[in-house]
Amino acid sequence: MLNLINFPSIGNLFVPHGHCYLWKPSLVSLHAVSDGIIAIAYFVIAFTLLYFVQQRQDVPFRKLFWLFAAFIAACGATHTLAIWTLWFPQYWFSGGIKAITAFISFYTAVALVPHIPKALTLPSPLQLEALNQSLSQEIAERKAAEETVNKLNTELEERVARRTSELAQAKDANEKLLQQEQAARANLENALDSLQDTAERLNIALSAADMGSWDWDIKHEQQYWSPKTKAILGVKSDSIDTNYAAWAERVHPEDLSRVKAAIAEAEKSRTIYSQEYRICLPDDSVHWVLARGRFIYNADGQPQRMIGVIQEITAAKQSILAIEESEARFRAVFEQAAVGMARLSASGHWLQVNQLLCDLLGYTAEELIGQSFQAITDPADLEADDHYYHQLLRGEIDSCRFEKRYLHKNGQPVWSGVTVSVERSSDGSVAVFIAVIEDIRQLKQIQIDLQQRAMELEQVNGLLAITNAVLEKRNSELDQFAYVASHDLKAPLRAISNLSEWIEEDLGHQIPDENKRQLALLRNRVHRMDALINGLLEYSRVNRRERQIDSVDVRQLLLEVIDLIDPPTSFTISIPDEMPTLVTNSIALNQVFSNLISNAVKHHNREDGHIQITAERQGEFVEFVVRDDGPGIEPQYHEKIFTIFQTLKARDTFESTGVGLAIVRKIIDTEGGSIDLVSDVGQGSTFRFSWPLNEPSEP
Prior knowledge:
Elements: H1 2-5, H2 25-55, H3 62-84, H4 91-120, H5 125-208, E1 211-217, E2 222-225, H6 227-232, H7 244-250, H8 253-269, E3 273-280, E4 286-297, E5 303-312, H9 314-336, E6 340-345, E7 350-353, H10 355-361, H11 365-368, H12 382-394, E8 399-407, E9 413-424, E10 430-439, H13 441-507, H14 513-541, E11 549-553, H15 554-565, E12 572-574, E13 581-585, H16 586-602, E14 610-618, E15 621-628, H17 660-670, E16 675-679, E17 685-692
Parallel strand pairs: 12-14
Antiparallel strand pairs: 1-2, 1-5, 3-4, 4-5, 6-7, 6-10, 8-9, 9-10, 11-13, 14-15, 15-17, 16-17
Helix pairs in contact: 2-3, 3-4, 13-14, 15-16, 16-17
């Protein structure tokens, strides 16, 4: 026993708890036995609580009992490990069990607190005793009530016996009534057979008339449709409920209100309902039907049912509508035509005239109808008029057009263009003539005026030819002058530039720095003067160059312009993949894009600028947009920049002639387009210009 007590721990960093007791047998035994007895007691208490809760399912606070059992069992486990650690120093495991015990105990305490008020409300033994006495009294009262019920049962049995006797007598009466009902049923069966024969005859008659029948139960909103009715309404057998809603869904929305109003009127006036309306079938086709029916009323005069028939009349209705539409179109054309129209008999008498013809000739319709057309024809045109009339009458031609003069009511001739066509009968004879009569008095006057204008134009053309020759000579002289002027102006400028360079070279270091700066400034002024002369010449030649019309792929043209300008590598120019192809003056369009893009690059305030070019069709033009993210231009200078020789920066700080945008506007104006600027300081600049949209024709 002493050897066991003094058994040392091997292979562990900790020493057994027995070391704390100096392995005194009496002390170690005391702690081991005490912890063992406590652990056994805890385990027994926990088991007893669990057994009690399992046996008493009605016990309150069952969850709390389970927590106490877990808490007490965990306490027993900690005492058991206290015995174990006397010899084996597994303190981590022992501490973990204590932590679990601590958690369970804390959770049990927290769960216990809210249940205290509920536990205090449980009845005490005295209260339970009082409740037991109350229940005993209630049982006694219930026994007294049962005795009363027994008495009532006895009385009920007596009543049942009397009722049984009465029922036997009623049974004899029912047998007599049953015999009467059987006789009535036989009569009803005979009537039903007769009714069935009548219904079969009715169905045969409806089938022969290509009609369907229907029966509407108004109270229950149900309808019976015969197979023919279902076929007319496009309903497959038993596929939907045949009710009022199903019928209303098939009525054309434009006709539904009219049909409902007709049904309401038939109900109110107790007359036959008859309506033609359209129905919309599931296949989206529209059909015409004719429905007729009559209401059936009860003894109180309220409608109970409505029975009727339905027939499809699509073909007949379409024929009627086509005739009505044709007649309406003819009347509309006849009465509202912008020319005079008339119908004449085969003998040449007016049958029908429109108001415009009456206004043209000065007669009323009543005055013209019944007269012969020869009566109001200018005698000079009667022979030609009769010629066409007899050709139409003999069938040699079916229509003709000619010019003639009618006589106005006031006697004045009225020049008219007449187109006559023929409507023939089935035997080929003329039924009526249809004449279209146009007022060509203005046309005749225009012809006279045109002849005079033609003579005047011949004279003007002669003058224009002389003027063109003079203009060509003046343009040639202007070109020669521009060339000579530019040559004569540039020669002294080149001499000045060369002399300043020679002076600087000859004197060398003898020239002060200030004089060198002035000589350089002199040469800059000479170069600027040369650029201004070139710009002026370019501006003057815009309208006088020969236009070269080519098919231009705008995207390819822009790529060539950008390649020629050669912007810095950090500069980005965006072009859409889809750009139009135009038949236009390629040189002019190239010059416009070159000026706009080079200005955006040259005047940008950063090396990493971005230019975006887009195109959008606007009617007969293409709108091109050149947008940059540069410093922008104040609104008050938007028009100034398009004026020749106008710049926004001092020429000593930034070299510019101020001609580029003036040339751009002049080119665009010459091509029939327009240009404008949208910009502000710090917002970049957006140039929009329109260019004629002349697309190449398809091969």
